[in-house]
Amino acid sequence: MSAMDPTEVFRQEASELFEVLEGALLDLGLRPDDRELVDSAFRALHTIKGSGAMFGFDKVASFTHEFETAFDRVREGEIKPTQDLISVALAAKDYIRALIEDPQSTDDVIGDGILDDLKRFVSSDQPVAPVAEITAAAPVESKQAGWHLYLEFESHILRNGSNPLDLLEDLCKLGPCFVVPVTDGIPFLDEMEPEDCYLKWDVKLHAVCDKDAIDDVFMFVQDEMKLTLSPLEHVEAPAPMPLFQLLDEEPAPVAEMPAPVAEAAAPKPAAKAEPKSEPKPEPKAEAKRDDRGIATVRVQAERLDELMDRVGELVIAQARLTQLASSGSDLSIKMIAEEIERLASSLRDTTMGARMVPIGSLFGRFRRLIHDLSRDLSKPVEFVTTGEDTELDKTMIECLADPLVHLIRNAIDHGIEDTATRAANGKTEQGRIELAAVHSGAQVLVTVKDNGGGLNTARIRAKAEEQGLIAAGAVLTDHEIHQFLFHPGFSTAQTISALSGRGVGMDVVKRTIENMRGTIDLSTRPGQGTTVTLRLPLTLAIIEGLLIRVGEGRYIIPLSAVEECVELTAEDERARGRNFLNVRGNLVPFLRLREIMSSSGSPDRHQKTIIISTGESRVGLVADQIIGNHQTVIKSLSKLHSDVTIFSGATILGDGTAALILDVAQLVALAQSKVEKQHISEAA
Amino acid sequence: MNESLAGEHQTGAMQVVMIGLGEEKFALDAGLVREIIDPVPVTKVAGARAFVPSVINVRGNVIPLADLRIRFGMPQLDNSADTRIVVIELELDGEPVLVGVTADKVYEVTEISQTDVQQTPRVGMHWKPEFIRFIAKWREEFVIVPNMERILN
């Protein structure tokens, strides 16, 4: 942590604050009266300003200051946050972000323009008061004449570049202060570390100000200091006195401290809780500490990846140990092997759990997208999300962002009709887009659903014929026709808008999802809307697999896809030409893996069938032997094998050999195309 | 091609690993070679292109095993006591890829100097010229410096 570039820390922190700010602003558009939201937006702004100044982002600090000043009128309740104001505020937020991330791309003129807009929206007869005065004049606690502060910094405070004197100076800006240094901590000269801070301070602040204002002064060092704060009851003459007199009158401050109200001894800075909306005045310090109680630790993502790799290696080594132990006869080794197997599997679960991120963090980003799109296209849209708590591997969350942006854009641009059309069709003026995530077995389903016009099957068909993808008059189901949307370069949009219609997109979306070993499905009802369903595996790193043998080779089938295993009966065997299996009255097509793998040698006498399924389709895979469960650490196949589609990856077995993982979706598709061919040949 | 040749001329000597495939000797740029290991059990990949028929486990990584003999139209010999797998690292489409290469024999790590470098003759070759970076002379023998990126793409 300490090795990290402080500017980088600021950038990270700022990007989180931007998310908070944006979320609060967007929510404010829906619930303009919610004071909590105003406060949380304001807090985020204030922190950006403070840290910006601290890390030398002066432009950020001064711009944010202006922004904050303007926004303060909203906080004071003088101005209602209108949609216009929120749009400008969002633009201002983007500008600050640009100032931090890419200062070259910004221009003061743009910033001034945004500020002018902001001021115009919040303008009224009064001039806007600068923020420092506001905080100083903020809610007063009853009849209280000031604060008594006792400041004790950790000895290493100076090494971090913090200067207690600067803080005291800031404190003095709140009102007249009497500052008495407490010197009893100073050691003998020969024990003194020149870089340590030994002084403590006892401060009487004669100002009527909010406790928050004091907390703000120490905001950036609060983890490295003890601040004891108590109200000053009686008014003391704020006239300057000679120092000796002061010392005489004041008893040694350490010994006689009034009951401490708040003692901000906080845990290490890594355990920083997200700024949450806290109840306002007194219990603030308490609430803050409660937040920290949940103790989230920020860990670099690469470390988690490394941890996962190590666990993967451990699982492989453990599999070898188990194999070795089971072939021997030493009972105690077997017991240890079992113990290690149990530990490895729980370690695997924990590690994977640590990589899980709720998908809500992703959903939040789309609200802004929808807000902007719905304004640009003048299509009012209600955006509903459900299942934000659904957890997914963090790498998957990252990979999902782009496809979802695409699907949402499509939904607004193509899906939702314009207001007039909607009214004509008897629909509500406001369109609706639902983004939902839900667990389904070992998969997560993410759906993007709109209540727009639905897909125009006839037009897709016409376009497909025009592009020569199908022969005119070919018999295709609607579902098959919709698959053309995933064809590279396929677009039915009559006009190309800035957003969509260029025909790049759906094929990329599909590829991205399939690279994650997921599937994408479209369903539509004319006039009612379209639903796009993404089925994703929970994780990319380790899966439960079923180990099978085909000829000499061993393969893994992801256990999540396996429905059941049955023996291939003599009757099924006899009907060779049919390649259908009778599973309790249902006909299931099957594939002989021996043929696909072109295995040599003769097949085992009792062939086993593993029934796998994706969505609605079921397919049987015929293998020589079912070996058993296998904790499968997924290794991707190299580029040299990217043309092989029936395998989704490889793993390493207990004896150190590599085994290939079957790609279930591809095999099902293969079986289905075989079935269709058979139909055609039968029909002919 | 000429550029890379010029590069070799400037740097003078080039470190290579000399391997034998069938009757021929190939010089692999030593900079590419990560390690040389004894044969390990291979896993056939059904449907893969003939010159990368299988994968192997090298220290926990599953890497493809390439067979240059197929690319050069040579007969495949069974593994002998001399057979080794040379693990090389290549850039394919901008990404580093580890590939194992079966060698019937690994001779030595040696240097071929610039004066030994011969231009690839345009005629009289039954191999695709793009597979060959250049031909060098080593101990009075002609050795082929293959263009691994081309061969494996």
UniProtKB/TrEMBL annotation, chain A:
Enzyme Commission numbers on file: 2.7.13.3
GO MF terms held by the record: ATP binding; phosphorelay sensor kinase activity
Record SUPFAM superfamilies: ATPase domain of HSP90 chaperone/DNA topoisomerase II/histidine kinase (SSF55874), CheW-like (SSF50341), Histidine-containing phosphotransfer domain, HPT domain (SSF47226), Homodimeric domain of signal transducing histidine kinase (SSF47384)
Pfam families, sorted: CheW, H-kinase_dim, HATPase_c, Hpt
Comp. bias (Low complexity): 261-270
Record-level GO BP terms: chemotaxis
Annotated region described as Disordered, given as residue ranges: 261-294
Ranges of Basic and acidic residues composition bias in the record: 271-293
Class of enzymatic activity (EC top level): transferase
Keywords associated with the record: ATP-binding, Chemotaxis, Kinase, Nucleotide-binding, Phosphoprotein, Transferase, Two-component regulatory system
Superkingdom field: Bacteria
Sequence ranges assigned to domain CheW-like in this UniProt record: 542-673
Keyword Nucleotide-binding on entry: yes
InterPro entries recorded: Bact_Chemotaxis_CheA, CheA-like_dim, CheA-like_homodim_sf, CheW-like_dom_sf, CheW-lke_dom, HATPase_C_sf, HATPase_dom, His_kinase_dom
Sites bearing Phosphohistidine, chain numbering: 46
Annotated TM spans: none
One GO cellular component, as annotated: cytoplasm
CDD domains the record matches: CheA_reg (cd00731), HATPase_CheA-like (cd16916), HPT (cd00088)
Catalytic activity: ATP + protein L-histidine = ADP + protein N-phospho-L-histidine
Keyword Cell inner membrane: no
HPt domain location: 1-103
Domain Histidine kinase: 302-540
Function field: Involved in the transmission of sensory signals from the chemoreceptors to the flagellar motors. CheA is autophosphorylated; it can transfer its phosphate group to either CheB or CheY.
Annotated protein name in UniProt: Chemotaxis protein CheA
Protein source organism: Bradyrhizobium niftali
